[in-house]
């Protein structure tokens, strides 16, 4: 299911049955002269669309503009970087509205700067906004002192489970550390270009590799759809297990 093509009846079933809701955290970032600006967004979206063919999920609209950073290239490159505090405030509003809508099984899936599941600024913005929105929602709906009330006496028994309010929104990578080690992971090189080519062939133009030389992109000459398909397969096994 795609929220953009859904109606209140579909959303009501998603809430009632706690069907996973998935939001892709995207970026607009320079990936060399051979790889499209939407690379990170497209990889997340492509994997989630394939996941929706294997299990029932509701796909929420992707958040494209984010703290990409200018670590790879400066402002003239086409990268769109949103300051973290501004971005977090925006996410806070999104998450709070999703909680008020009754959603309790939300996943944010990110590909950008998630090497070995390290916590970089964009991912931290999602995580912090999720916790803040949950805390604010609980205070507004249950009142201050909600946690100390007797109705939450089983709080510690529910940690990490579906009844734990701080597990209502989970932020996860497209590829776990184990998957990254099994296949490979980079920026606009052999691995990222392979998975992007397998998902969206028109998003990679290897013939343009020589336009500008970048150390991080040199290995892209060895990218292949075959490798990309292997990466997709392993990523989907992980995502299908993680998104419940």
How are the secondary structure elements laid out?
Layout: H1 8-17, E1 21-25, H2 39-51, E2 58-63, H3 84-100, E3 106-110, H4 121-142, E4 169-173, H5 177-183, H6 190-199, H7 225-242
Parallel strand pairs: 1-2, 1-3, 3-4
User: From the 3D coordinates, which CATH architecture would you assign?
Assistant: 3-Layer(aba) Sandwich
CATH class: Alpha Beta
Order of neighbouring strands in the sheet with most strands:
2-1-3-4
Q: Which structural class fits the helix and strand makeup? A: alpha/beta
Question: What is the CATH homology-level superfamily?
Answer: Creatininase
CATH topology: Rossmann fold
Beta-strand fraction estimate? 5-15%
The secondary-structure element order is HEHEHEHEHHH
For the biggest sheet, the summary is: 4 strands, parallel
End-to-end distance, in Å? 15 Å
Q: Count the beta strands.
A: 4
Unreliable spans: none
- Round the mean pLDDT to the nearest integer and report it: 96
Number of domains: 1
Question: What is the helix content?
Answer: 25-40%
- Number of separate helices: 7
What does the model show?
- This protein has helices at residues 8-17, 39-51, 84-100, 121-142, 177-183, 190-199, 225-242; strands at residues 21-25, 58-63, 106-110, 169-173.
- With 244 residues, it is an alpha/beta fold.
- It has a single domain (3-185, 229-242), classed as Rossmann fold (3-Layer(aba) Sandwich), CATH 3.40.50.10310.
- Strands 2-1-3-4 form a four-stranded parallel sheet, sandwiched between helices.
- Helix 2 links the parallel strand 1 (21-25) and strand 2.
- Helix 6 crosses helix 7 (225-242).
- The model has no long low-confidence stretch (mean pLDDT 96).
């Amino acid at each position: 299911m795609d929220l953009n093509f859904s109606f209140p009846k579909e959303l009501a079933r998603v809430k009632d049955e706690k069907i996973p809701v998935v939001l892709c955290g995207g970026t607009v970032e320079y990936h060399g002269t051979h790889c499209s600006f939407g690379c990170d967004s497209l990889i997340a979206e492509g994997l989630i669309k394939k996941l929706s063919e294997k299990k029932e999920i509701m796909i929420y609209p992707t958040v494209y503009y984010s703290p990409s950073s200018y670590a790879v290239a400066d402002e003239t490159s086409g990268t769109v970087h949103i300051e973290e505090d501004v971005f977090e405030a925006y996410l806070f509003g999104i998450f709070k509205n999703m909680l008020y809508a009754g959603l309790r099984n939300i996943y944010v899936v990110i590909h950008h700067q998630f090497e070995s599941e390290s916590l970089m600024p964009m991912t931290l913005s999602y995580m912090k906004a999720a916790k803040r929105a949950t805390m604010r929602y609980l205070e507004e709906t249950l009142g201050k002192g909600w946690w100390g009330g007797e109705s939450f006496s089983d709080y510690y028994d529910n940690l990490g489970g579906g009844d734990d309010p701080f597990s209502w929104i989970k932020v996860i990578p497209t590829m776990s550390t184990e998957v990254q080690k099994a296949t490979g992971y980079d920026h606009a090189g052999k691995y990222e270009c392979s998975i992007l080519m397998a998902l969206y062939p028109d998003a990679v133009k290897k013939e343009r590799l020589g336009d500008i030389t970048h150390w991080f992109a040199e290995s892209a000459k060895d990218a292949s759809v075959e490798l990309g398909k292997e990466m997709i397969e392993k990523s989907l096994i992980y995502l299908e297990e993680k998104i419940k």
